[in-house]
Amino acid sequence: MLKGSFIPPRSQRELRDLTRHRTQLVEEKARAANRIHKVLQDTNIKLSSVATDVLGASGRAMLEALITGEEDPVKLADLAQRKLRGKIPQLEKALEGHLTEHHRFMLKLLWKQLAQQEELIAELDRKIEEQTRPFEAEIDRLDAVPGVDRRVAEVVLAEVGPDMKAFPTHENLVSWAGMCPGNEESAGKRVRKRITPGNRWLKRTLAQATWAASHSKNSYLAAQYRRLAGRRGKKRALIAVGHSILVIFYHMLKTGTTYTDLGGDFFDRLEPQRLTRYYVKRLESLGHKVTLESCAAA
Q: Do 69 and 157 share a domain, yes or no?
């Protein structure tokens, strides 16, 4: 009488191992980068205050020079590339620090750790690409969704799979992933509105995709995020848009359709009269007299 649990096939479970291990390595790489930043701060080198990415091409060249013994801020600043060369005077001041032998040893150790992690991540990328080669069509379709890249599509295929037969409706998938509010009641009252535990690997990836989608231009998902963030807060908006992205994935994988964006002005077109009244009221509250005149269709 009980329904069986969702147990993916062996090939999908192997792909899960690869994508999950890659996620852990990426987190370890971020921790190593933060430790490098901490050592630089301890030496009073404020490279991050001038360079947006300390581990960019210019930052890496300066770090390698620091590790090999270079301490002259003028020579270090001259290693800047492209746009960062316009900030050489600021770099010279930011690179004036007190680098001891202990700091140099720590930087050298962390640099080796970072290089090893990047090599392992690249090796995993190649293996995952090989494993997902039969699903290139699905990955290309999912990649068309704003905020979604190949890595996000690979994680979705690893956690959910390309076949949606295990989930009768998108509500089942969203509930399994933990991207919807809990349903706990007591005496007819809901006592919990937080999302359920679900699949933490999938939730983390959807949150990253949502954050990227919220910064996309003229897209429905970005408009949805801004609309909800103003009323419900950024965290709830993040979950709601992640829910929408997962529903989009479900229908694209189930029906084989391509993504069609509703546009950034979808909500404006949904209720134009209400929006008109809102802006008229705002203008009147600022002391303006508003007269509306409809434009003739061109």
A: no
